[in-house]
Task: inverse folding
């Protein structure tokens, strides 16, 4: 198996619901990042082997193979293929996994692994119970056996179940949420995200055209009192939108390359892909996958939890 390296990485600033990117269509935004990730290392794009894009809701603007549509909307050659993958929340990670696997196996040398999601337009479950072009009901993938085993899982209900099972309190979750915003604001102010972010032209809240170079969902001055004022979500005891990941829009991409190509082109890698893993989790506790995957991948990499920085 060959070594696989990441030689370039870029992302758009994260946009909030109907924020920066409300006038973009998905392939346009993806194309900007595909162009940028190769431009950063001045790569001869004719050497690229494939583009793999993780996308959960492959419908509407994100349908018709978003990876290929991104390529055809970019400056990359028309001969470059593209494939879209969906592993729900792990989709872009699986794009990296697949690209790295092909390079390690020797079937490819250079792959762009990317992720694209405009949640403002395609919210959770957008691909379920839709309507076909002829007006007929598209149906849904929920089988009776699934319903008998798991019911109809809901992320916030699952989050509450996890909190109860592991005795995590509302106050601990609130403190974590507050610290998350504070850390993001501090890291932004100190320039930690500057290298990875590609400034993108977008719109401010009043519809004025601006150059977006910072993540939009961050909030200053988040307090327990403010979080307490939010409505408790149905089916939960104290979960609120303030304790949830936000609805966001954005695109990212990394350039994966074999060790042989890295040496030939004289590039300095950002990182080496050492190990990866995939697990499934109980739909009733759908957010617990990392608890199983993390020790497995650390063992594969010869590392322990203490080796990972906080």
Result:
């Amino acid at each position: 198996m060959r070594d696989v390296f990441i030689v370039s990485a870029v992302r758009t600033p994260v946009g909030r619901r109907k924020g920066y990117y409300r006038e973009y269509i998905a392939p346009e935004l993806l194309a900007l990042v595909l162009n940028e990730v190769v431009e950063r290392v001045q790569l001869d794009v004719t050497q690229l082997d494939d583009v793999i894009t993780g996308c959960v809701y492959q419908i509407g603007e994100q349908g018709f193979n978003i990876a290929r549509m991104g390529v055809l909307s970019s400056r990359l050659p028309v001969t470059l293929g593209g494939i879209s993958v969906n592993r729900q929340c792990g989709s872009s990670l699986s794009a990296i996994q697949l690209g790295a696997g092909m390079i390690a196996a020797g079937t490819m040398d250079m792959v762009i692994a990317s992720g694209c999601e405009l949640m403002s337009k395609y919210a959770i479950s957008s691909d379920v119970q839709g309507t076909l072009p002829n007006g007929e009901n598209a149906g849904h993938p929920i089988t009776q056996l699934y319903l008998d085993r798991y019911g109809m899982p809901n992320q916030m209900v699952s989050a509450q179940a996890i909190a109860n099972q592991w005795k995590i309190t509302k106050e601990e979750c609130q403190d974590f949420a507050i610290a998350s915003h504070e850390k993001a604001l501090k890291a932004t102010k100190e320039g930690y995200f500057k290298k990875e972010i590609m400034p993108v032209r977008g719109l401010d809240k009043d519809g004025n055209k601006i150059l977006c170079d910072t993540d939009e969902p961050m909030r200053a001055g988040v307090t327990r009192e403010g979080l307490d004022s939010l409505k408790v979500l149905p089916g939960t005891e104290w979960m609120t939108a303030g304790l949830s990941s936000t609805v966001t829009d954005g695109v990212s991409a990394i350039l994966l390359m074999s060790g042989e190509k890295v040496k030939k082109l004289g590039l300095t890698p950002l990182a080496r892909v050492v190990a990866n893993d995939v697990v499934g989790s109980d739909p009733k506790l759908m957010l617990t996958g990392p608890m199983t995957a993390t020790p497995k991948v650390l063992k594969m990499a010869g590392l322990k939890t203490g080796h990972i920085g906080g």
